[in-house]
Structures are given as structure tokens and as C-alpha cells.
């Protein structure tokens, strides 16, 4: 691991690669066959599914922080469930639910500050709400209104990406820029186990390692890439091993354990701020719901598997922990669930007022000058709207 610890390295002292890595290989090579040390990977779990905690690893967050994190996870779930209902009733477009991944979501952005950056994939709205995206804006976004796409003022987020793995290189580029300027901000970028097979992700790993870019690669291993299970995607079980081959310190974390996620996230953020380069965090979790609202997982996976993961619910185990610790009790859980539900419903009202479809806009955003055949289609379409009395 690199030793550099200044939080704001100047150009002159900044190494291009972590200082301890000597790749020159100039020494006399001893004959024989020896083992190469490829580095160890921690597998971190702090809070198990029964709500029991490893006291030696508990980050001992203040009660107010624990409450904030709990509320964020509950809000994420309420939003997820409400959006699915809205989609089924025709009020929301196709979207990717994050049910069961709430700890991974909140844990990956927990340690970020305003100066930091977040470059997410599409299954990230829990993390986006934590980062400061208003819920009504995310509803607009997923209902297809372009007004929803731009990050809110003061939030250093990239728009989410649907093209698998495509945002991981730009995120690394941002981190390289941060490093070149000598700033101490970091970038978190998330992607799935399927995205790990994309060449661009491997390129990002390499650039980040070589330039000691302060980027945290948050690999959400949720078991499936649509209908492809992780074991068909990759021959190794611990996907975090992909990172060490690039010289990136990597860790495997129980992604349904919010405490482990927070600890791994904090450590990675601190490394990035100290100028020690990237970290890969493999969050082992499970996609409990459909891949997207256009998917039917019953055709490719067994109900038993889903049932087994239900027992590992990140919210249930965290509530057991909070209860044991005396931070919150059953009445609080009910109240918080109600408050979160109301918060989502209030946002839905704002969304409904703003989500006024403008059918005549559909030809407006692709071409500055419409090609003749589209001009013809537009004329036909407008005539139809006129006949139906649609504005
Ligand atoms: C470049 C590209 N190829 C294919 C797709 C179609 N596609 C959408 S989601 C997905 C699976 C992604 O799985 P994973 O990376 O594990 O993320 P998850 O959806 O499980 O969160 C695929 C193949 C796409 N969006 N982009």
C-alpha cells in the first residue's frame, strides 16, 4: 500500500503510481519456482442477519447518524415500492427497482461530502436521494421528463448511465482531474456484476491504478445481470479479486450489512483523500425485485433463492441492531415508515403537478432541422392530435 499521506499533494511531490509499488524488476532473478504474493482481500461482515454485531468492528456511529441512515434506507424502500405501483398503473416509465439493495445504496455514499462526486448506474435512486436529489425530480426522470435528468444545483453528481459500464471511465477521468489539481475530493462510481465484463470497466481500473486516481469502484454484486447469474458471468466467486490484478486495494463486503458498507466506504474515501488512489469494493447483495419493470424473473430464477435472501433483509437486521442498542423501538419503526411513506406521497403530488405531457414536443429534441420524412410524420401526427382535440 502506498505511504503518501498528504491530503493536498502538490504536483512536484505527487507520484504517478503509489510510491511503494516497484515494478522495475531490475534485481537478479533467482532460479526456481516460487509463489507470487497477489495480496489479500478482506471479506467484511459486521452485522449479521440476526442483528448480532461484531463489537470489535462496529464503527460505533452516534445515535443521530444511525437514525439518519435507518431513515434513508426506509425511505429508499418506500420510494421503490411506490414507483413500482405507479409504473404498474401507467404513471411511471420503465425503471430498475433496488429492493433489497438499500444498505449497499446508502453505504456507498455515506462518507461522501459535497465536494465529492458520484457517478451512478441506473439502480441508484436511494443513493441519489441521499446525495440531495429531490424525490419529485427522480419521479420526473423515470417518467421520461427531461427536466428530471440534470443534477440539482450544488450536487456533484453525473447523470446516471444505462449503457452498461460506460460511466466508469468518465468517473475515473474526473478522479484523475481531481488528482492533477491536487484536490482531496473523491469519486464513487457504481456498477453491477454484469458490467464487470465490459472492457471499459477494465480500462477504468487500469487508468485509476496507474494514476492513483481517488475513485471508489463500487461493484454491486447482486447475483444477476438480467437473466445471467454471476457464476455464468465470471469463474471466480470473489469478484473483488478483479481489482487486485490491477494493483487496486480491494475488499469484499456483505452488501446487506449497512455497518460493513459504511466502514468500507469510509476507509476507501480516506485512502482517496490521502492520495493513495482507487479502491474496489465488492458489495455482495441480491436484487430482490425484477431487473426492470419490463422483466419477469420467474422465467429464469427459483422462488427459493429469493426466499433465502429475504431472510438477509438489510433493513430488518439493522432494525434488530437499533432495537438491541436501544436507539429506536417498534413504535419508532412504525412512525418512521409512515413518515417516509408520506414524504414519498407528497413528492408524488408535486410530480403530478409538474408531469404534464406535451405530446407536440416529441419531434423537438433530436434534430435542429427535421429531415423531410419526419416533417411529413409530424404533419400527420399533429393532424391526428388536432382531430382528437389534444393540445
Ligand atoms: C452496453 C450495454 N449492453 C447491454 C445493455 C442491456 N442491459 C441492461 S441492464 C443489463 C444487465 C446489467 O447487469 P449488472 O451490470 O449486473 O447490473 P444490475 O442491472 O444487476 O444492477 C444489460 C445487459 C445495456 N444497457 N448496455
Give a brief outline of the structure.
With 391 residues, the protein is α/β, with parallel strands linked by helices. The protein contains 13 helices and 8 strands.
Describe what this molecule looks like in 3D.
The structure is a single chain. The protein is 41% helix and 9% strand. The chain is of the alpha/beta class and 391 residues long. The chain folds into two domains: 42-354, Rossmann fold; 359-388, no CATH class. The model is unreliable at 1-13 (pLDDT under 50). Bound molecules: thiamine diphosphate (TPP).
Strand-helix topology:
Layout: E1 42-44, H1 63-88, H2 102-109, E2 117-119, H3 125-131, H4 135-142, H5 168-181, E3 187-192, H6 199-210, E4 215-221, E5 224-225, E6 228-229, H7 230-233, H8 241-244, E7 250-254, H9 258-273, E8 279-284, H10 303-310, H11 314-325, H12 330-354, H13 372-388
Parallel strand pairs: 1-7, 2-3, 3-4, 4-8, 7-8
Antiparallel strand pairs: 5-6
Thiamine diphosphate is lined by residues 123, 162-164, 191-195, 220, 222, 224-226, 287, 291.
Keyphrases for this structure?
about 400 residues; alpha/beta; Rossmann fold; two-stranded antiparallel ribbon; 13 helices; 8 strands; about 40% helix; globular; disordered N terminus
